[in-house]
Design brief:
Strand order of the largest sheet: 2-1-3-11-4
Largest sheet: 5 strands, mixed
Shape: globular
Number of domains: 2
Helix content: 40-55%
Order of helices and strands: HEHEHEHEEHEHEHEHEEEHHEH
Number of helices: 11
Structural class: alpha/beta
Number of strands: 12
Distance between the termini: 61 Å
Oligomer: single chain
Strand content: 15-25%
Mean pLDDT: 86
CATH superfamily of the largest domain: Bordetella uptake gene, domain 1
């Protein structure tokens, strides 16, 4: 296309179109993962709100550090954001010998996007139908029970370890670079603790057996599963979620605008239906609400890490 043709084409665009730079949401997980699905669910309505396009970029690896570092170093202009589970960003910070970022200064929480529900799932081949049966099996066969993780220090790793510690069993952590699902379904690894978006479809199809959801009460997405409190383990109740972050120096006015865009997306029927399909709850709120949530979880995740790896 000639230069004159390009100029003529640009002249036909609405006046505001040239000024609308795309917002890039970096996801610290691969395409098709639960966090990726959440990010894409909100990116679509945010792209249609008239404030400019929103694109999703997957940058997995390093237990979340690759994506987090990229956004922490990005220009604080509201054009580069991070979508991360609260666990991933905190664990990545706590686990690193070389601190690549500080979750309290290098990021500004824009808003919490979801409340996730964590589920204890096993292979039907394991032959257990309840939490108590899994515990009995583990105690009768020391060293025979294992759990899947998506990398050492990941939220899935520490949740699996937290369960084992909470019920006082020995269980071997098995980290996976690729999907753990084939081995879990086949019974080559005993259990996993992961969010509903990751294991819910397999539970619904019968490929996996759900034993409990880590909440105080049952959830609508998997109503047949007892809560971990019902299973007699209220100390293991746990709720986490996905947060939208901007670089730490992002102006408050820009953060407020992004917060409004996200909250409008969370109120849309398309997002509510998509989240219902994933088994997560939308959590509209202010940036201040998200800051409080991050601070509370930083202390909680520090305790969980110490249970798994010991005090540094």
């Amino acid at each position: 296309m000639s230069r004159l043709a390009v100029v003529a084409l640009l002249a036909l665009l609405p006046l505001g179109a040239l000024a609308q730079k795309p917002v890039r949401i970096v996801v610290n997980a691969p395409a098709g993962s639960s966090i990726d699905l959440v990010a894409r669910a909100v990116a679509d309505p945010m792209s249609l709100d008239g404030a400019g396009p929103v694109i999703v970029e997957n940058r997995p690896g390093g237990a979340g550090t690759l994506a987090s570092e990229a956004v922490a170093r990005a220009a604080a202009d509201g054009q580069t954001l991070l979508v991360s589970g609260i666990d991933a960003i905190v664990f990545a910070f706590l686990a690193a010998n070389r601190k690549p970022f500080d979750p309290l200064t290098d990021f500004t929480p824009v808003a919490r996007i979801t409340r996730d529900h964590w589920v204890l799932a096993v292979s039907p081949a394991l032959g257990v139908s309840s939490v108590s049966e899994l515990v009995t099996l583990a105690r009768s066969r020391p060293g025979a029970v294992s759990y899947a993780s998506i990398g050492t220090g990941s939220s899935v790793h520490l949740m699996g370890a937290r369960f084992a510690h909470g019920v006082q069993i020995e269980a071997l952590a098995v980290p996976y670079k690729e999907s753990y699902m084939p081995d879990l379904v086949a019974g080559r690894v005993s259990y996993v603790v992961h969010v509903t978006a990751a294991v819910g479809p397999q539970i619904k199809s019968g490929k996996l057996k759900g034993l409990a959801v880590f909440s105080q009460e049952r959830i609508a997405y998997l109503p047949e599963l007892p809560s971990i409190a019902e299973a007699g383990l209220p100390h293991l109740v746990y709720n986490a979620g996905v947060v939208l972050y901007a670089p730490g120096a992002t102006p408050r006015a820009t953060v407020a605008q992004l917060n409004q865009r996200l909250n409008r997306a969370l109120a849309s029927e398309s997002v509510r239906q998509r989240f219902a399909d994933l088994g997560v709850d939308p959590t509209p709120g202010s940036s201040e609400d998200a800051v409080k949530y991050v601070l509370e979880n930083l202390a909680r995740q520090q305790r969980m890490r110490e249970l798994t790896f010991g005090t540094p």
